[in-house]
Amino acid sequence: MTPAPPPAAERLARILDDLCKAVAARGPGGFLPIPLLLLVWTRIRRASIRIARLAARAAAGKPPIVRRAPRAAPQNPASRKPASRLPRRAGWLIGPVPAAGGYASQLQYLLTQPDMVALLEAAPGIDRLLRPLCRMLAVARPKLPPRPTARRPTTRQPPHAPAAPPTHDIPRAIPRDDRPRAARAPPQFLRRSTRPYPA
């Protein structure tokens, strides 16, 4: 009786671990520069660890982590540090690491299996992590349905309510008829005296 194959996540982890060993073996002979070797090994190893975490999360029945829509924030190009990038050419790793061609064929076959496709649909983050690995090995990824993107909640401002009248009393203008009139002198003081002043 043929034993059942191991889970897709375990087979994928085995391929990535063997690929890391093949990359590390090409360093002493000078086939890969040390900075590039460290960068490739770190990328593959880090992707393997994250894929194992996402696969364990999917096996536990937890919902996948939905990526939020990127926020368009202005960035100053002068303040950003130049990130070290891998070559963009498809299959560039097979030249300096010939053993990577065998692992590429294994990965291509694994991605066509139904259990692996089901794993990619249950944990969409695995497909994102496999994207640079498939590029460096010239492996075609399966077509998956588009992933939902969580939109950031938009807080709507409530409409401006009319300003309430102040509670304190405001002194109003007194009508003209009710205003106190200025006191006037008696008429006898307003008459001008016609008698001459004494010399």
Characterization of this structure:
This protein has 199 residues and is mainly α. It has a domain at 8-63 and 88-137. The protein is built from 6 helices and no strands. Helix 1 (8-25) runs antiparallel to helix 2, helix 1 (8-25) runs antiparallel to helix 3 and helix 4 packs across helix 5. It is elongated and about 130 Å long.
Report the order of strands and helices. Answer: HHHHHH
Summing up helix and strand content along with how strands pair, one would put the structural category as: mainly alpha
Radius of gyration from the CA trace?
Answer: 42 Å
How many helices does DSSP assign?
6
Q: What is the strand and helix layout of this fold?
A:
Elements: H1 8-25, H2 34-59, H3 100-111, H4 114-122, H5 124-137, H6 187-190
Helix pairs in contact: 1-2, 1-3, 2-5, 4-5
Descriptive terms for the model:
199 residues; 6 helices; mainly alpha; 42% helix; elongated
Quick summary:
42% of the residues lie in helices and 0% in strands.
